[in-house]
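TL;DR need structure tokens for one chain.
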Amino acid sequence: MAGVYLSYPFCAQKCTFCNFASGAAAKDAERAYLEALEAEIRGFAWPWRPETLYLGGGTPSRMAPGDLDRILAAIPGKPWREATIEAAPGTVTPEAARNWRTAGLNRVSLGVQSFVAGELASTGRRHNAAMVAREVEWLRAAGFEKINIDLIAGLPYQTAESWGESLNWIARLQPDHVSVYILEVDEDSRLGAEILRGGARYGAAQVPSPDMAAGLYEMAVERLEAMGILRYEISNFARPGFESLHNLKYWRLEPYVGFGAGAHSFDGTVRRRNAEEAAEYVRLMRERGSACTGETPAEPDVERFFVGLRLSEGIELSPQDWRRHGAPIRRFQDAGLLAIQQGRLRLTSRGVLLSNEVLQEFLA
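>> reply
TL;DR here they are.
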């Protein structure tokens, strides 16, 4: 099953925790970008008809209906088996929801991050819980049966009590899919950079400890499971049958093509990447009709450990796997981080919390 990823790297404002190459831009810059994006799509020689599509950002829910229609019209395969748009609360309206359905989209991923006012204010987000609830109703009224809600564990001012309130809202809204991310601390976000330098801006001094953030994540696993929303990947939870078909492609090493700034592609043998910044992407598309800035040979036998172990289903081991990775597999089994169940290698619950250390071992 092949898929398409579309990058729309523009937002109304940059959130403090965001470490993506996205942000606000002038209208003429967005127009130039959309023209380059359409040109890249129309210039692609399709070796297959995509079954899934994912429009990410940024905030692609800000796209004008005409722009969205024109971009999607350039992609074969409609109606796609699954077609997702990322949306920020505050950008969903009854009209927008109906337009998205008409355009062929059938799944919405809402970047809620938190339902608690103080936590939202610290990140620069402007929505509230009531707004999210209203927008979920509008999406369902428009015919969206697949709705995802994103949450982040480890935001400034977050406590076990406030995190529980966000999870209570999940129980009220009953989405079929939830993504739970632990706050990433790095130099690529304003909040992360402030934490690393020991500052106090953006609520950096009020960020929960890594141990507490891990505890919040485990609390989410337990609460979501009680709701029938089961973990199928480290950060993703769904009712059976509502897993993200597009994202499963990444973890199962299925082919996909990415269009736009920062987009990556994988055809089974080669990985390609586009220019990260929107302005550079537009410049390269205008000058040479391609924004690709590099490609590397894929190593499926190695990569399937790194991506496949993220899935709760794990991976099936071959004799070659034991010859190549037998030592770390046994070491992590002894440490209680990996287990073999029904012939498949999986992360244990403790292994999930230390997954970065485990997965990196198999890339060495």
